[in-house]
Amino acid sequence: MASMLLKSMRTCSVSPSWAVRLGARSVSTTPQLQAQVQTKSKKTLARPGVKNIVLVEGVRTPFLMSGTTYADLMPHDLARAALQGLLHKTGLPKDAVDYIIYGTVIQEVKTSNVAREAALGAGFSDKIPAHTVTMACISSNQAMTSAVGLIAAGQCDAVVAGGVEFMSDVPIRHSRKMRKTMLSLNKAKTLGQRLSLIGSIRLAHLSPELPAVAEFSTAETMGHSADRLAAAFGVSRLEQDEFALRSHSLAKKAQDDSLLQDVIAFKVPGRDIVFKDNGIRPSSMQQMAKLKPAFIKPHGTVTAANSSFLTDGASAVLIMSEEKALAMGYKPKAYLRDFVYVSQDPKDQLLLGPTYASPKVLERAGLSMSDIDVFEFHEAFAGQIMANLKAMDSDWFAQTYMGRKSKVGTPPMEKFNLWGGSLSLGHPFGATGCRLVTTVAHRLKKEGGQYGLVAACAAGGQGHAMVIEAYPQ
């Protein structure tokens, strides 16, 4: 597929300097954009007989580069902090929630149901059920939509959803042979049996198994897949670096302008209070160009500078039926409307989830790309984002791979990830989805828009998209 795509996609390539030009324009034209959006009059997506489900509030701990201030904690510590921050920000009674769902990817074996451990630690009533879900980078997306499903079905009125990832300390296993020996030792009944088993241990048995961000089905790392995808769509190293610089520059501006209102302060035990994300580092094109390829050497284009970094962090959102939220005196932030999940071949289309999911969710909602005021897409790699944008702008790709008559259409960059994205803010695998949804809600209010679109790719060739509608001011 890669060679076919490379040959055919050259016709829809974008000039290498587009990202910087559009990045600058996205900042400078925001007031005009607001004026345009505020003059629009759009129908609501409310449907007769269908329960309105709302996002009441969303918070997250600062997202920190792994191995920094959070290094001595555990995943449930971060999840507990996010839940406590949600309780503090909403004033929610600790027994007023019907269910708690958390997403995570690399699970700590001591707290396999991190949702339950974090909820108990945060002080929620022990009568509230809690479970943990995993769906790679869209784990908290799944937590949120599971919450929506419970409310839509009439099972619950109020659900807390969230996600956590802790890359500073991941489970490292003994080799398979060593594990088998140790389990046999545990069952051995005589000293002779134990000595025989101990004597069978070889030096090679002591080699550890480290987790990797790789596909089980293909054994290919996600960075390697991103490099191949960028090459298939003709995305140059220059384009990727420019997009990454755009992300960091916009995130820095949003941070300086106090727009990242979902971030809560967190007092790390034995250390300082953390107030903000620490991975936002605007650089220069010259500095970024010095970095060597990280995956396909020496000719790859994916580097540490144009990839999201290993991140520690947690998020949490309060989702309710509109009726329940208003009865409790809350002013919701947004309506959570239609959503879809998609899945493709993980070998050649691992990271194209947004391209497949976006048109499906828009069709479900009866909207077009031009109706969307705010776009928030997950940025796993700059090459991944730009490959998706080129795929969405290609009639050939739509006809050949999606069974569509014409292209999906590309999100206007003046509406796209204007407060930075995962490349700059960080990407705790299990927590990013809640950040995306909360950011859309905040941007809709700030910019006067009505509809937002969240989209994300995930390991396994999966993807997610959701339409969010602003709550009337």
TrEMBL record:
SUPFAM superfamilies: Thiolase-like
GO molecular function, one term: acetyl-CoA C-myristoyltransferase activity
Pfam families found in the cross-reference section: Thiolase_C, Thiolase_N
EC number(s) per entry: 2.3.1.155, 2.3.1.16
Chain ranges of the Thiolase C-terminal domain: 330-469
Example GO BP: fatty acid beta-oxidation
Main location: endoplasmic reticulum
Keywords: Acetylation, Acyltransferase, Endoplasmic reticulum, Fatty acid metabolism, Lipid metabolism, Membrane, Mitochondrion, Mitochondrion inner membrane, Mitochondrion outer membrane, Transferase, Transit peptide
Enzyme class: transferase
Entry's Gene Ontology cellular component terms: endoplasmic reticulum; mitochondrial fatty acid beta-oxidation multienzyme complex; mitochondrial inner membrane; mitochondrial outer membrane
Cell compartments where the protein resides: Endoplasmic reticulum; Mitochondrion inner membrane; Mitochondrion outer membrane
InterPro entries registered for this protein in UniProt: Thiolase, Thiolase-like, Thiolase_acyl_enz_int_AS, Thiolase_AS, Thiolase_C, Thiolase_CS, Thiolase_N
Pathway as given in its UniProt record: Lipid metabolism; fatty acid beta-oxidation
PROSITE patterns associated with the record: THIOLASE_1, THIOLASE_2, THIOLASE_3
Residues annotated as domain Thiolase N-terminal: 53-323
Reaction(s) the record says it catalyses: dodecanoyl-CoA + acetyl-CoA = 3-oxotetradecanoyl-CoA + CoA; hexanoyl-CoA + acetyl-CoA = 3-oxooctanoyl-CoA + CoA; decanoyl-CoA + acetyl-CoA = 3-oxododecanoyl-CoA + CoA; an acyl-CoA + acetyl-CoA = a 3-oxoacyl-CoA + CoA
Subunit structure: Heterotetramer of 2 alpha/HADHA and 2 beta/HADHB subunits; forms the mitochondrial trifunctional enzyme. Also purified as higher order heterooligomers including a 4 alpha/HADHA and 4 beta/HADHB heterooligomer which physiological significance remains unclear. The mitochondrial trifunctional enzyme interacts with MTLN. Interacts with RSAD2/viperin.
Described purpose of this protein according to its UniProt entry: Mitochondrial trifunctional enzyme catalyzes the last three of the four reactions of the mitochondrial beta-oxidation pathway. The mitochondrial beta-oxidation pathway is the major energy-producing process in tissues and is performed through four consecutive reactions breaking down fatty acids into acetyl-CoA. Among the enzymes involved in this pathway, the trifunctional enzyme exhibits specificity for long-chain fatty acids.
Family recorded in the similarity comment: Belongs to the thiolase-like superfamily. Thiolase family.
Protein name: Trifunctional enzyme subunit beta, mitochondrial
Source species: Echeneis naucrates (Live sharksucker)
Gene coding for it: hadhb
